[in-house]
Structure formats: C-alpha cells, structure tokens
User: Fold these one by one.
Assistant:
Number 1:
Amino acid sequence: MSLFRPDVDRIQGYVPGEQPQDDGWIKLNTNENPYPPSPKVAAAVAEACSGRLNVYPDPLASRFRKATAELFNVDQDWILPGNGSDEILTILNRAFVDPGELITFPYPSYTLYETLADIQGAAHERLLLEPDWSWDIDRVRPQIERSKLVLVPNPNSPSGNCWADETIHELVPPNGVFVLDEAYGDFRAEPHQGEILHSDDGRRMVITRTLSKSYSLAGIRFGFAVAHPDLISGMRKVKDSYNCNTLSLAAATAAVEDQDWMLGNRRRIIATRDRLTKSLCELNFDTVDSEANFIWATHSEISHQKIYEKLKARKVLVRFMKFPESLNDSELTGLRITVGTDDETDGFLEILREIME
Amino acid sequence: MSLFRPDVDRIQGYVPGEQPQDDGWIKLNTNENPYPPSPKVAAAVAEACSGRLNVYPDPLASRFRKATAELFNVDQDWILPGNGSDEILTILNRAFVDPGELITFPYPSYTLYETLADIQGAAHERLLLEPDWSWDIDRVRPQIERSKLVLVPNPNSPSGNCWADETIHELVPPNGVFVLDEAYGDFRAEPHQGEILHSDDGRRMVITRTLSKSYSLAGIRFGFAVAHPDLISGMRKVKDSYNCNTLSLAAATAAVEDQDWMLGNRRRIIATRDRLTKSLCELNFDTVDSEANFIWATHSEISHQKIYEKLKARKVLVRFMKFPESLNDSELTGLRITVGTDDETDGFLEILREIME
C-alpha cells in the first residue's frame, strides 16, 4: 500500500527544462535573460550578508512591497511576494480551489498549470487555442463559466503572442478568479501599470510577475502577485510566514529599484528578437510574432525533434516541445528558442544553418 | 459569496513571533541563534553573486545534498532541501494527506502543525501530553492508529525536553508517516546521525531539520528532510521545481560544511542555557530541563502575561504562550525564553529581577 496521496502517486511531477551544470553551452531553452542583473543586486546582497542572517527575514517584505507598489501605482497591500511566480501559482491553487473544483488554462501553454492542479486534487480542462493562437470565446465560454480558477499567460508560452485586454476580460470566470500570468510581461510592446485590475471585474483578477526573466534573476527565485487587498489577504494565509529570505528580498528590491537597468536589457533583447525572427524566416521556419524573450518556430518539412537533437549534439540547447492535443493537428510540436545575446544568437544561427543544409 | 476555499476563510493564518524592525531590543522570543553564521557563508554568497544569477539554480541542489548526506551517513537521494523546515512540513502535508484524513501532533507543541493541517483541509487532533511533558502511550494509541501523519518535534517546543527513541517508535502510525521535527536537534545532549531511519519502521519516518537555529541562518529560510528515497522521491513531486535559490543554496552549503563553527556556537548556547536555567530557578520559576536553545519557564504566583508585558515595556521580548487545552489545567500559560548571548542573558535577568521585586 502506498503511503502517498493517490493524486501524488498518479502524477509524474513537472519536468523543467534541462539545466546542464557544465560549461560551453549556448543555452536557449529556459527563457533566462542572457544579461547580468543590475550591479546594485550584488551590493544589496553583500550588505544583507554583513547584517544579521541569524534573525528571521522581515515577514512583511516592506521595502520590496513599497518599491513594487510604486511601479503598479497601488498601495503596498496589493503586493504579495513569493519564491518565483511558481510559488505564487501554488498559493493561488491552495487559496481558491478545493479538490474537484475546476481549473482551466489555454492550451498549448505553460504545462506547469496542469501539474499544480493535479497536486491540488483539482479537476482541470484545457481551453484549446485556435491554430493561429487566438481564442474562440464562444467555444470556451462554457468551460470558463464552470471554472474556479482560470490561468492565462500573457504573453503566452510557447507562442510568445499577446492577447488584448478586451480578450482578457472575456476570460474572467463569473464565479471564480482569473490569473494573468505576466512572467514575460515586461517584454510586451506596450507595458502597463496593472490598470486592468481597476476595471469592473478587477476584483476577481490577480496579476503574477517574476524577476526571473526581465530582471535577469532566475537564480534568486522571486516573483510576486498584484491584486486587490481582499484577494491578497486571503492568499497570505496559505503561504509560509517567512516565505522569502533576507538575501532574495535584498536582491529583488535592488533589482526593482533599478528600472533603467532592466529596461536597457529589455531593449537589447527586443532588438535581437527581431533579428532572430527574420533569420529564422530566411531558413524557412514559421514564427509567431513574439512579445516575449523567446520565439516559437516550426518547420513544415524537417522534424523538430531532429533539429533539437542535432543542436544539442553541438552544445546548443533549445526547447523541443510536444503538445499532444491541438485544434490544428493531432499533435503540435515545435521549437521554443530563447533570445540570447547577439553572440549567442549568431552562434546558434551559424550551427542551425549548417544543420539545415 | 467568498471566492476563497471555505477552509481558508475559516482560518486565521499562523501568527509568528513578533519581529520588531527597530534596534535596541533584547530579542529572546523566536529562538534565533544569537551568534553570527560561519564567515564562510558570506564568502560563498559573494561568490554566488559574482556568478550567474540570471540562470536558474541547480534543481538538484547537488552540493548541498552531498554535504548533508555525509552528515547523516546516507546517500544523496535521502535528502530533500526546502525553504526552511516550514516548507518541508507543507510538502509533507501535500504529499501524504488527503482532505479529511487525520494529522496528529503532541500538544502543547508547535502550533504551526494545526494551521498547516487546516490549509490542507485535513482533520487534526491533539495528542495531549502529560503535565510533566511525557507521553501516556496507551491513551494516545487509538489516535496514532487512525493517523495518516504524526508530527513530533524533538526536542519539543515550548518545553525543550527530548523524548527517547523508544518513545518515538511507539508514536509511528501503522498506516501512515511519522515526522520527527528536529528543528532543535543539534542542541540535544546526544546528537545522532539519523540511525533511527534504519530501524524497522524507518521506512515510514521523515526527519526534518532547519538551518535557522543551530546554523544561525534564520534569514536564509533553509531546511531539509532526511528519509528513505521512496519517501523523498514522492515528496519531490509536490515541491516547486526550483524551490531553493542560488544564494540560499550557497549559504546553506557553506554552513553545513563548517561543522566546527556550528558546534562552537552550540557549546556556548548550552553553557548559557544552563546558567539561565539556574538563575530562573533562583527567581522561583519552574523550568523544564531543556535540550534546545530555549527554556520554558512558569511561575506559580505571578501572571505570565504581566511579566511578558513588563519585559516588553523595557524592550525585552520573550514569547508569552497560551495553550487553551492541557491535562494539567484548563489552560496552560508560560514564557518561552530563547537562550541569547551572555550579555543578552545578563541584561534580561537584570530587568527580570527588577520586575519580580
């Protein structure tokens, strides 16, 4: 007899992208930012280290919440920090969804949503996207209406496209909570200040953000939620009291306080993304217009898995993705390619050209 | 209509000890170690900062697991790191307990267990301790036999006493998992290497540890589980993929690798603890023989709450605790006093003597 919950026995667990621990890779598979974080991060961490690591962190994360509240033009009680937006997503599941209640999310999209729903013992359904990554709202409406939690990444992954606010409003469940997962939100063409939260249905909306991508801080596992205090105060009850540590709080605060640095890296990545898109098209790949730091590329003739394997043999990692279900086809496959530095991009393209010959 | 789960609406959330953010306090309320962590911690964190914070942490925490496995004389796959033992306790709830199943724990004890069970939607019952903090095994056996998860801190909090392995074996549920919460395990008179896990019922046992207390690292939120790989592998499925960050991993690894530093602080704390116990007895407090870094003190004549308040007015914080249920009395109250430095202890005793006059 297993000691585990049946749900836990049944699931595989989420499989993150490969993280080789040796050197020499061009690593374009997990959407990390190729540029270092603000130098103010290391200074803030060193200061925190010279302080008192023997005492518990500030459970209110006051300085981080102050800096972030200013960015979104809200009060501090609208902000909840966590260990990456992954922890925020776990908190959302635990706060709002009882076993058997329904969680929905677009598909193809971020596959962690399914794993988290399984862990929570929740029911879950995929909201199938159209072949051009748009929504057929009438088709998904019945599912949305039955949902306790709807999770939508915007920009979406793996496609990188963004949906307009008018579409987002159509996806808010009438009897549940809507999560706008903006892990890649800083790479959008038109950044925003969370104005959507102040709309009529904003009281049932939570925006999640991470510092892993735009702030170049995947290593510190830091994310946060922005939502009305009625939602934040309940979410806070299910988190560990001291969920964020003194070092990551110091790093995150310094990064958020240095907007210029993040915006400089954002500009560089967007310029490289546009060049990479053009080059992929020249190699006969189909791409989606991306507002993120990665590009979804498909090829009508050559096996995506083969391309992935040949690149890997040359120490270039991209993400080969396989979605068993889609409206387009019985199975959707493709390559999700992170936008690296210009040098990494040139190195990748050179090897890709050789492979495609 | 609330959007939250009924369980979440019903609970208050765990209330941690006060964490004043201003200076000048003698802070003896949350069992922090008064001494700084190993200087190797700051060096390791600085090195990690100069490395690549823009990439994800090592999801396997290889170096930390190697160092810790050696301490417990097991293979690396017996070790699971987390954000404090609090996260490990959350993982244990989510891995083993379905809503409605029973979680039990001694009482008076660590009150977080009840909060975590509530969040999980689990049933929970208190295993009432005898007035002298011992177990009446025959009395609690029916509860143990119905338990899916039994959580026992050893040393216990707030009492600080330790139970022998023979008692621990009696508390292992026949159809569930037993958690030996050793947050204060390094302060025991007889430290061990987890030999109990290799006993007949060891396959249903998990030891949890934290670096917050003995390693002086409450600020980095780091703990770990030690258990048979069959248990660890299932627990791993319910955690976030990258639950520990690059900075806390570097700090934790450096701390665990510097055993001499930890053991030096342990010796100092034990010496101060013995002196503090003696002084409290001279002031007519009743104390429990502590194998932790705190002392449980009660006074038969003066209100514990009054003593706490008078100390707080003088900027001395101890933990006033109130347990509504006990075999001793309708309500048990007392003061849990952390063992500080010698200077802090002298300062506390001086003010306490004035208050008691």
Number 2:
Amino acid sequence: MYYPEIKILDCTIRDGGLMNNWQFPKEMVKDLFQGLVEAGVDYAELGYRVDKKMFSPKDHGPWRFCDEEDLREVAYKCDTKVSVMCDVGRTDYDTIIPASESVISMMRVACYVKEVDKGIHLMNHVKSLGYETTLNLMAVSTNLEPELDEALAQIAETDVDVVYLVDSFGYFYSEQIHYLADKYKSKLPGKEIGVHCHDNQLLAFANTIEAIIKNIHYVDGSIFGMGRGAGNCTTELLLSFLKNPKYRLRPVLSLIDKYFIEMKAKLQWGYEIPYMITGSLNKHPRPGIAFVKQRREGSKQSFQEYYDTLTDIDAVD
Amino acid sequence: MYYPEIKILDCTIRDGGLMNNWQFPKEMVKDLFQGLVEAGVDYAELGYRVDKKMFSPKDHGPWRFCDEEDLREVAYKCDTKVSVMCDVGRTDYDTIIPASESVISMMRVACYVKEVDKGIHLMNHVKSLGYETTLNLMAVSTNLEPELDEALAQIAETDVDVVYLVDSFGYFYSEQIHYLADKYKSKLPGKEIGVHCHDNQLLAFANTIEAIIKNIHYVDGSIFGMGRGAGNCTTELLLSFLKNPKYRLRPVLSLIDKYFIEMKAKLQWGYEIPYMITGSLNKHPRPGIAFVKQRREGSKQSFQEYYDTLTDIDAVD
C-alpha cells in the first residue's frame, strides 16, 4: 500500500553540482527535468541560489545561481515542482522574487544548528514571498543533544513546511535514524519531516527506507547517487522501492544511460575507502576528497597512513 | 557493548573468485589470510571444493578446488579459521579428509531449498568427519513459504551448526530480513543463524546490520565487496561497525590498497543498473552480468531495452 504523502525530491543538479562546479549544459538539465516529470518525481532541485557578490558566474556554472531566466529555459510549472537551495550567509535576499512570478515552487534553506536563527530568518523571508519552505539542519551528527533540542524548539514555532534530518557525513546507522526521526516527529508537531542521506557507509538508501518506516515523508535522492564524495541515496532505488503508481523507473534509466555513466566514470563519486573512513569517524568528507584527488595526481600516501592521520588523537581535528 | 557470539566470515576468495575464475596468486591469498588474522576476522573462506571430474584444474584457478596442499601454502590453524564451501551435486565426498588432518575448520554446504535433502546428506558427511558445518539455503526469496518451512523443519532435526539466510539476488529490504530472521530463529531452535547479502540494491551492509539486530551471529563480508555482479557486504564496513575490541580495520585497508583497487578497476563488481534491476525484480543476476559484458564489448542495447525485456510478462523468464 502506498502513502501519497511520500514525496521524492531529486537533488541531482544541486548536490551533484558539487562534483562539476554546476557546469551542467542546459540541454542536459532540460532533459533531466523532463525525465523527472515522466518519472513522477515530486520535486526537482535544480541548484543553489548564491549571492553573485560572493561567487562569480565566471567561476561557476549557472546552477550555482539559478537565475530565473536560466530555470525557465529548462523547467516549467507542473506536478514536478522546481526547488532551489539557499545557504545561510550566502544568499542575497533581494534576488528572490515572489513565488507567484517564479518557476520555483520550493526554497530549501540549509544551515547548521548554531545558525538556526539565521536559517529561520531566511526561511521566513522566502515564506513571506509565497514559497514552500524547508529548513535543512546540516551535520546534526556533530551536535550536542541540548543544542539540537533548542534548535528544534525554535523551529517548532515557525511556519516552515518541512524540516530535514540531514546525515551530512554519512555517519548514521539505522539506530540513529530511528532515534532522530522520533525526536524530530515529537519536537515538531504538525511539520513534515524530510531526510537527506549520504552514502559513505553504503547506508544512504537503507537509512532513507528506515526514515520512511518512521513516517518521514520527504526523501532526497540523486540520479545514480551523484553527489559530493560518496554521493547520495539514488533516485532510481527510491523509484523502484516506493509503491505509488505514479512513480516510473524507466525514464530515469534513460537519463542514466545518456549522461550519468560517462559522468561517473569521469568525476568518480561513490563508495571509496577515504569517504567510508570519514563517515565512520563522523567527520566532514573534506580530507577524503583531498586524499582521493592527491592519489589521482600520483600521491603514494596509503589508506593506512590516511587512517592513522584521521585517528591520531594528537592531530588537529 | 559487543557480543562475542558475533562472527565475521570473510568470503572474498570464494565469492570474489566468481569474478576472476579463482585465479588469485598464492602470494596474494597468503597476504590476505595474514591480513584477516591481524584484523581479527573469525573465518576466512578460501574457495570452493568442487569435483575435479566435473571442473578441470586447467580451466579454473586453485581456489575452485582448495586442495589441502594449496591451502597449507597460504593458511594455518589459528583463531582465524579456514572455511571452504561445497555445492550440492558438485562435491566428491572422497576428497574430504578428516578435520583433524586438515587445515580446514569449517565446511559450508550451499544448496537450494528443493535440494535440501542432498544438502543435509553432504552436511552430515562433513560433520561426521569432524568439521564445523553450515547449510546455506540459497535464493530463498524465490520459494513459496511452505517449501521453506518444510526445509527448515528438516534442518532443525540435524546437527548442523549454522544455517544461513542468503539473499542471493540482493532482493530483500529490511522488512524481509526481519521477517525471515524471526522465522529462522523460531524454526531452528538452538542453531546459530548466519546471513549472506548481495549489494544489488545497495542494501547488503544495511541488511546485515538488521540481521545482527535480530540476533543473527554469523555475518559474511568480502573485502571491498568483491563478489559476483553487485558484490557483497564489505568486510571493512563490518569491521568498522562491530564493537568487539579484537576487530581491527587497519590491516584490511592495507589489503584494499595493495590488491583490490586495481582488481575492482579491472573486474568491475559493484553497484550497476543492470544488477540493481535484477535485484529489484527478484531475479538471478545472470542477465545483468551478460548485459554488462555485452556493453563492454560494444553493444548498444540501452538500460530501457534491458528493463523492458526483463519486465515483459510474455518473455520466457
């Protein structure tokens, strides 16, 4: 039996853009959006909206900025809603037009727990412009419980539509997902909860299923798992798992064939030992990404040396 | 808190051998065994024991046969016990010497549910020779419930030490693992239960954890997931997850560095769309393996065409 409340958000372009600096050709993003429409995916997240005073369009692809005119070239208003992510501290409030004039339906606000006031401020702004809103609390595996509880209490007082449980480092096992899902559900009455998992320990899909079992309704995936480092829960596995008759795997298979096999061979996201180690140690993937890059450039540092560095209690963390 | 009852069985050479026809050099298997000893792994499965009248040593590597003298060149009696697998219908009973004279400690017997009588017969034989024994019931995702129940009832009457829940096709979600783990536990009182998962849907490690939560104590992994098609639960993730102080990840990292990065680049097991599709459809990976091979040889068949073939209700299954 399916639950119509469950929504798939495909974040391939937004999260995958971390692997290619958001340099996806417009024709490809247009194809991808159309494929997601045919697959019945509920939201297509087509990038970030960052401040051009902080990041230059000369140095980054268009999906780092998601200008309205760029979005309109690849997407349109339909049952697959366009989502864009804003980071706290990197958003020019003035670039956000009213939802009624935009092709964007949902604005997702990402922040750390310690920045939750800034996150709520930005979320209130986009909400006042008529968008569906989310708050994505990043890296909650690193917070002390009272800090997280306080943030959730603050968020409970807002009008945000969806609050995301984010496993930024790919650290959680099913046990932690169950615990935090229960916490989010109980501390945020009346709010929808979402989940966003990374695949450092090959648990992104499994943890997303566990979240669904715990009545979390918004689930993030990316096509072929494209995303930084180990990547994400895959959209194709979600489409295959979920029973809503509107979901169709077939259009996404075609996208994978056409674009993602080649991109993955070149950009190489996915399960690798350096990401598995940062995940298991509850660390940001940064040192893993640096290590993988150095090895591709000929570094002879071994996995053991890398592991010893990351587990050295005397090292600066 | 850790449970000393939990045992890791590394089946890299046995299951990974399906990818290279068991052509692992002896020096490598020796290194691997020593690494598993240092990692605290409980069992190292070094291959199959198949009948040389059925398979010629000219056509297959030594770990297809696991002659006593070959095993003794790479392994020795210690806390990491040597395991070898026998398939029903492919085993020459006369080649099995008494356990007291062998470096092998455990013989695992693999069979389908419909062959359970043959499996029990072979298991009784190796048990009578003094080995630890298992029965690995393959592909139980394809059996009707009464068939499985009958097989388990027969097995309950035997002296087998461990009965394995095997997800041969990588089809199960946590829900099915929970259900079957409960069934095996209740139908096989006093027996240890093991689990062997495949990674077609990126759930091998997750499902192994779920099995552990359900008090299954014998868990299979292979280094870097090496195994047919999508591969297996990885040994490194098990070593990182389990809390027994004797388990050490570090020696396995060194093995991965030295051997498995290069082997995976060449042999290419792991998550791929054709295996994900057979897994999600509860089918043997055979058509996926054939498709992947044909694509590498230049075939232009698309994922969609492959999917359509496998889901065509009129096609011979």
Number 3:
Amino acid sequence: MTIATHIKAKLSGASWIRKMFEEGARLKTEHGVENVFDFSLGNPNLEPPEAFDKALKDAVASSSGNDHAYMPNMGYPHVRRSVAEYLSQEQRVRVSENDVIMTCGAAGALNAILKAILDPGDEVITPSPYFVEYQFYADNHGGILKTVPTKPDFTLNIDALSETVTQRTKAVLINSPNNPTGQVYSKASIDALGRLLKEKGRKLNRTVYLIADEPYRKIVYDGCTVPSIFESYNQSIIANSYSKDISIPGERIGYIAVHPEASFNKELIEGMALTNRILGFVNAPALMQRVVASCQGSSADISAYARKRDLLCNGLGECGYDFVKPPGAFYLFPKTPVPDDVAFVKELQKELILVVPGSGFGGPGHFRIAYCVDDRTITNAMPGFERVMKKFKV
Amino acid sequence: MTIATHIKAKLSGASWIRKMFEEGARLKTEHGVENVFDFSLGNPNLEPPEAFDKALKDAVASSSGNDHAYMPNMGYPHVRRSVAEYLSQEQRVRVSENDVIMTCGAAGALNAILKAILDPGDEVITPSPYFVEYQFYADNHGGILKTVPTKPDFTLNIDALSETVTQRTKAVLINSPNNPTGQVYSKASIDALGRLLKEKGRKLNRTVYLIADEPYRKIVYDGCTVPSIFESYNQSIIANSYSKDISIPGERIGYIAVHPEASFNKELIEGMALTNRILGFVNAPALMQRVVASCQGSSADISAYARKRDLLCNGLGECGYDFVKPPGAFYLFPKTPVPDDVAFVKELQKELILVVPGSGFGGPGHFRIAYCVDDRTITNAMPGFERVMKKFKV
C-alpha cells in the first residue's frame, strides 16, 4: 500500500509517453541540447511583450506589503474589472467583474469549472484530437470525458456531436485554436453548436454548458479571427490564460468568465469561487493578477509564429508530408505515412527529432509538432524529417 | 440541473459561516472599516521581510523572457536544492532536491499529496480542533476525514489517535503550530505518534503516512521550538508554505518534502508531480519560486506577533475569558462562556467584533481570534469583549 491505485495506473498508463520523454532527455545528454530538435512541448519561445515587462517592473516598484496578502478568492476587484472590460470588447457581450474569477492558468480554471458542475458519472464531450489533460481534468472530479471525432480537416462535426449528447451530458468542452491541430472553429460552426446545445437542453430539460478553453485565441494567422463564444450561446463559460499569448506559462495566471445570461449564473460563480478555493488554488497569484490587469490585449510577436509555421509547412510539404495548414496556435498535426504513429515517432527520434505521437491526443496516425522553437531548429531538422519520410514512403 | 449536487450542498452547508461574513461586510459598510474589529481571517498584517523585497526586486531586474516559461512540473532544480538545504538543517535529516516539489502554497501541497495517496474510502485522521479546509481536501479526492479530539489543552491525545487508526487509514494529518488553537506539539508527543504509526503499520501491514502541515513553523514564542517531524518518523511528508512567515499568502508559494527514507519514496514523488500537474497547478508560480529560493529562513517580525498575543491574552484574561495561552501561530481559541458558540459570536458582532465560531473548526464551545491585526484593533476591541463576557457570565 503506497500511492493510490488509480494514480499508480495513471503513472504506468502514461509510461510510453514518459519513456519517449526520457529517451529525449537521454539524447540531449548524449548529443548536446543544441543538436536535438525538440518539438515536443508547447512552451512558447518568444519573449513576453514589452507591456508585460513594464507592467511587472511597475507592479514590483509600487508594491507595498499588503499587495502580497490574501484578496477575495475570486481575485482583486480591479483586476476582474479590467479583464471584464477587455472581454466585453472581445466577445461583443457585456461582461462585468462579477462574471469573472481569476485563476491559476487555464488548467486551474478548467479544474475549478469541472469540479463545480460535475456530479459522479456526468459526461463532458470534447471533439478529438484533443488536449490529453482533459481526460485527467474530468476524471479528477468524477466525470467522464467522451470524445467525438472532428472532420478530416479537424473542424467540428456537428452531427457526430449531436449523437453524443445525452441525459448525462453536463458540458461540451472545445479548444479553438486547437491543441494539437491548430484548427480554428468557424463562426458558422460555433453558431450551429450553440443551436444544437440549446435544442438538446430544451429536449432534455437541462442546461448543457459550452466550455471554451481559449489560451491560443490571440495566436492566429492570415487574418483569421476566432469567433465569440458568448455571442453564439449564452450557456457558455470561458477558460483563458495568459500563458501562451504573453509567453508566461510558468506564472500560472488566467481566468474564468461566465456568460452573464447563463442559467444559475450566480450559483455557478459562487460554486467556482468555492472550488477554486478548496482545490487548493485559494486565489490566483497576487502579483501576476496586478500585472496582467495592466497589459490586457497585448501579446508576444505573433508574426514570428506565422513565420515559423510557414517555414515548417513549406519544408514538410516539400518532403511529402500530408497535413492541414493550421490557422492558429503553434502546433502542426501531420499524418504519419504509416498507421503506427509511435513507430514513426521513434524513427524521428533516431534523427534527434522529438515530437509527440497523435495517439497521445486521441488522433492516431498523426504526430504533433510544437513549432514554438527557434527558426533554425525547424530548418536544421528538415533533412531528418525528409530522410524518415523517404524511409516509410516507398 | 446546474452546479454539482455536492457543491450545492457544500455551499448551503457553509451558509451560516457565509452569513456571518456577509454580516461582517455589512457592518463594515455601515460603520466604516476602521470601526469594525475584524479578527476573522488569518491574513498576516506584518510587512514581508526586507530579504523578500530585495529578492523580488533582484529577480525581476535579472529576469529574461525564459524565466516565465514552463520548468519541470516539480519546480526549478536550483530552487528545490535551496529548499532541500534549508530543510536539511531545520529537520536535521539530509534531504535532497529530489525529495522536494514546489507547490501552490500549502493548500496546493496538501491537495497534491492527498490525491496521490487516497483511494476512494481511504481515511485521513486529524486531531481536532482542526483547519476546516482539511474536510474539503480529503473529500476532493474521495477520502474521508476522521477527527480525533485533542486533550483539553489542545495537545495530542495519542491513545485516542491509536483507537482511530484502522485498515482504512492512509495518513495522519497534523498542523503544528495549530490553526485554530496556536498549540505546538512537543517532541515527546511527535515521537510517541511516530512510534504508534510505525507499530500500527507493522500490525496492519501497510504504511501509515504522517503528513505535517507546517506553515506556522517559524511563528513561535517564548523560545518554543517545533520538533522535527522527519527525525521522529520516516514515513512522513511535509507540506509547507511561505504565506504566513513571509506574509505573502496571496502569492501561493510553498512545497512538499518527502522523507528520503519513506516507503516507495520515488513512486510518491512521481505520483505527486503528476497530481500537482493534473489538478491544474501544473507548477508553482515561476517568479515566486526564484524569489523564495533567495530568502530561505527569513521571516516577518515575529516579535510583533508575540506582542499582539500578550496584549490580547492579558486583556481577555482580565475580562474573565478562559483560554490556553498559545505558544505559536497567530490564533487564540478561547472558550465561550455558554455552549452555543454561534450565539456568543453573534453577540460579539453587535460590538462590531468579528471572530469565527469554534464549531467551524470542530471545536464547539470555543471561538477563534486571528490576532494578525493592528495592536490598536486589539486594544480598542477590549471594551466590547468585556461587555459581552459580562452579559453571559452572570
């Protein structure tokens, strides 16, 4: 008797992914970090924007003792006001500070949301491929994650979603721009999803919430825009984070926003303020709350990610890789030329290229490249990508 | 169908406490914050030490973009090394960085620990009166909190603890210096507890962990020392935080340390690194990790708390209150002169004095005074404390 049985199972269940990471670490030790092409982590490599640096310096210079004390569990009122003002413009729906809770990143936000709404056995539906942590987040709170395949281009399959909504469905959880595909769901598809959930809610006589996990919202290319969730469906909850767009994932700062017209809005917010507290977050980190309040709307140099995406897509296209060119996030999710994506990824490792098999995201036969890396990592990895493709495509 | 049934129950279950806080807020609005004597929250009122201010300014001045990125989920290796070095001296047991995980405060630490060790129905034993959040923390992860009364002076009752340990017991959770009583458990009692758990473990053929929640360790008076947990029992895990001693509870920074000789030490650490990630903490806030690494061992001016304690104890003693003078933390837990502590606390509210009924801590017939407040709040509240005591003691 030692650690919990279910945690032991999770540790050994994830062991092949861990082994891959361990192998990656070994390769770095053996060949030197600079000689390994690591595309395995969504750790933004761009500098935070100047607005962040300035806000941080200002916040520290002006801080008094009390600025590190507890504040209301939901966060500083002035910070929530600042988020609400920005969000009202972004979503084109008027949001107030009372609709916003500051959180420990989007991961903290999603856990607080799911704990507040899930009873044992309740289902959460997510389109696949999907961010693998969702499985844990639902399971943490007794829920069950149901996955529904997207279309071949990774856009929403509304019919398939419709078939999966049942009496047990508590929420649909979407992530657009998407990790691992980089796909962005269109306004038409979000509208259709909103209509579907409204209709289902009426028939089932219950509220089916739409949870939008949006940390990549600002990371889009070629003039692509991410539609407003709040405009399309009023039973919606946004989880967001400053990790990816401001390049500060280590600082753990984000927020929850509940649609002001959502059913039982007040109860939801009270419930999530409670779950945010009792899960041990207590409140979002104080200093970073004050910092992000001063740099709403700013982001790292997204054009650099656009350049990396083009460099990668052009290179891989020439090598014969098959993929959907992604309009957002910093991930590419190409097909593997053979069904066994783990075998393919192991071959890439031999070329000192580290990527993640699609199976890890519910998308077998694919692999994920996180291209938030130096341009030269992309350029220098290309010969390896080419050799491996040639080996498989005979 | 809206929020989860169990969360709804928790919200309404805590409603009398919430009503008290709402009443407190109303009194502040009506009479002005400065005219209300708020002893209800353990929010340290002392300034953080200079070492913290310096470390924060230095960390920000020297920070580059990468300093806000993800690091290993367990925390920066150099930070964990710095914690391990300090802890090795404090506990007089050699601890390495591999035994330490940086967390989102002690609340985050306890949730990560309990999720890693609890299977559904597993029991955690805690001496009462106890920090009320423990109930939530155990419940979050399917565990059951069993409380065991302490002796009348709030010291450990080893015999009572012994009777409560069963085949279902996964851990004993202690908090010394204690919230809400301020009591500190002696070396002899920790040794006895260690012997008991070792003996029980042998008989039951399982490991019973001792979890020590120690955020008040540095806040002790009159030369009192808090004994080493690691010296007394090697199946032990420490949860700690910089919230109370450095006065930075809003920043959410703390750590887990596992005894290097604990059974399945490696599995425990791996399990807790996983639970810390999947619960949504991901990692402890990056900047604050680097800051606390540079101010290990420093603390706010504890002598000021000692002065406040004496001011309060002398004043209340003269009014006829009955209490155990606490050797640590910044809480006093006097008896109420009538069994109904809620009724008594409501009378104090009429004098604009805000405290928390002991029932909220599993200690009915008492009330908690958090004396981390201005000296004049204590002095000015004394006539009110006296009038209410006179009303009840006829």
Number 4:
Amino acid sequence: MELPSQCAMLRIFFGEDDRSADGRPLHEAIVIKARETGMAGATVLRGPLGFGRSSVLHTAKILRLSQDLPIIVEIIDAPEKIDALIPQIKALTRNCLITREKVEVIRYGDED
Amino acid sequence: MELPSQCAMLRIFFGEDDRSADGRPLHEAIVIKARETGMAGATVLRGPLGFGRSSVLHTAKILRLSQDLPIIVEIIDAPEKIDALIPQIKALTRNCLITREKVEVIRYGDED
Amino acid sequence: MELPSQCAMLRIFFGEDDRSADGRPLHEAIVIKARETGMAGATVLRGPLGFGRSSVLHTAKILRLSQDLPIIVEIIDAPEKIDALIPQIKALTRNCLITREKVEVIRYGDED
C-alpha cells in the first residue's frame, strides 16, 4: 500500500461519551470503520479539557463533567479515499465537528 | 450557530505549569476565554514529552521535570473570529507558540 | 531565536513500542534529535487507540494490544530547517507515517 504525496487529513471532534448507533464508543466505531474501509491509518487523541457545539465544558477535574472528555480522531489517506469515507463518517456520527486539511506525505511505512 | 466551510484553526503550545495572570492554569484560562467569546469549540491536548522556546525538555519520566508537560489548545472558527481572538490570546499568554492553519469544515453539529 | 511567519509542521506517526536503532523509545530519540539540531520545539502526543501501516489496532483496552499505543511527534520550524531535518528523521525511523503541513506562526515566545 502506497500513499500519494498530496493527501488529506480528516479530523473528527466529539466527546468521549458519544456512542455509535449500536452503542459502541464512537471513537472505536470510527477507527474500526476506517480500518474496514482500508484507510492508511487512524489515530485517536483524548484531551483533558474542551468544549464543542453543545458548549459544555468537558474537563477531567472533579466536580465538573468528568466523563465526556474531548476526543479527536485523525485519518490520513489519498483525497479521494477521504472523500469516499466522509459520508460513512457522517452516517456514524451526529453532534460533532469534522474538518479536512491538506497534508503532504513524506514517508509512509518503509519506503523513502 | 453555523460555521463556514473555510475556517481557521488556532493552536497554542505551552507547558502545563504555565498560568494566566490571575494564577489559573493557562489551558483553562484559554478555554474559558474561547467559550466566553463565543468560539465554536476548543480542545486541549496534553503530551508526555516535549520542548519549546525555553528548550527545557518536558517529560513525564521520573527524575526529569515531571510537572511541565506540553499542552496544545486548538480552537477552530471562522477566520475573522479567530483573528479577533488572537489579541486576547496574546494578552493571556507570554512564552508560547501560536500557529494558525486553514481547515475546511465538513460538518459542525448535526447539519449535513 | 525567531521564527518566520510561514513555517512548516512535521508530524511523525508511529507506535509507542517503536525504538530507535540504539534501543531508545522512538519518540524520545526524535525529540532529542529535534533539540540537538536546534529546532524551535517538539511535542509528543499519545493516543488511546489507532492503527497504521501494519494495520494493527493499537488500543489501551485490556485484552487487546496495550503496549503499542499511537504516538504523534510534532515539530514546527522554518521550512528549510524542517527540510534539513527530514533525512535525519528518516534515518531514525522505519515503519512510520511522516507528514508535512504549512502553518502560520502568530507568536513564538514573548515577541508580538
């Protein structure tokens, strides 16, 4: 598997409590979907504080909402593969932010 | 609240020990400022290792500086809202790196 | 030390178990290389779940691979310094994804 030098990065922002329709943690559902559809890779990041569309302040601190910390899932692949993935990610998610950025791939795997 | 498809992402890099002028953890102060000023969202990420302008190697390892791990705060909104926020973030911070990137918003909240 | 307003961000994706040739955790080796070569900064992020070229699903969950969580190292500097660093990062790493993005530097350190 190779990646072109001009790729796209999809980033999906939501809360740790968010679930897919079948009750699975949303970040797991997204990563599994990315793998099933043959994407080059996916990375989940979890932060200690944040807020999103609901304007709830997610935080790890005691006495605040401790269970819904911010999650970002990053998926990088060829632009057309990312474009094909977007409707599937939209079908999987509801209240989230999805962004797309251009990235240049310098290396993927062992090749130079 | 809606977001245009062409947005900007502000990223602010500093150390976990950094405080705002009123003694609050800087990442909290930035996230609260972002919410007060009506930004679409903010996400804090914390890493296990890093260094910045001071060239101190932040690390979670025992026997090194364990208290000043790297923090990134990400804020995404319309370019003019990000531009209006920048002076306020500058006023809140001192020794940090602030970057700005273009991002395309694919979805924000429930809308398609 | 100053940074130009147009900088580049290098991001290196791999697993927490990856080591440099001398047996050091790869993220440490990369951060130390970045500091030795005078880069403006480096930040390590570690995620709870992900997969990459090997298609192994890295996860923090019990009963799955718990030891090879995804790592991202981000390095930001002037484009020509990033370009000069790339061969050194390639020499240090094998099975990883390396991307490059343009970022605008709004502030670096104390200056306005």
